Amino acid sequence: MFRVLVVLQALLFPFGLSSTLNAAETPPRPNVVIFLADDLGYGDLACYGHPRIKTPHLDAFAKQGVRLTQCYSASAVCSPSRSAILTGRTPHRNGVYTWIAAGADVY
To answer: Are 49 and 89 in contact (CB under 8 A)?
Structure first.
């Protein structure tokens, strides 16, 4: 019985070794940068086609990364939109319905 186990182990060992040697490396996780600006429209940057406004640093980011062209805002004002991005919940769900005044107690 012992000999059978030794032979079986000797036969199966290369299969286990080959699966670890041929395992694909996991690709590195991408870096994600979100630019959130108040009162910035879709066409207000040079990388999106504005003829007069020059934005060389943002254009460099756009050339190296992904430009999104289909966007959605959770609200028309900044505080609910920002809270939706930070929490992943709609303003109705996270309780921020309008702008937050300076110095307001938000808790």
So the answer is: no
Angle at 71 between CA 69 and CA 73, to 5 degrees: 160
Report pLDDT digits (tens) over 20-74.
555 678 888 888 888 877 778 878 899 989 999 999 999 998 999 888 888 788 8
State the Cα–Cα distance between residues 64 and 55, nearest whole angstrom.
15
List helix spans (H) across 1-107. 2-21, 56-64, 78-87, 91-94
Copy the structure tokens of residue 57: 């640093």
Helix (H, G, I), strand (E, B) or coil at 22: coil
Size of the chain, expressed as the number of residues it contains = 107
pTM of the model: 0.53
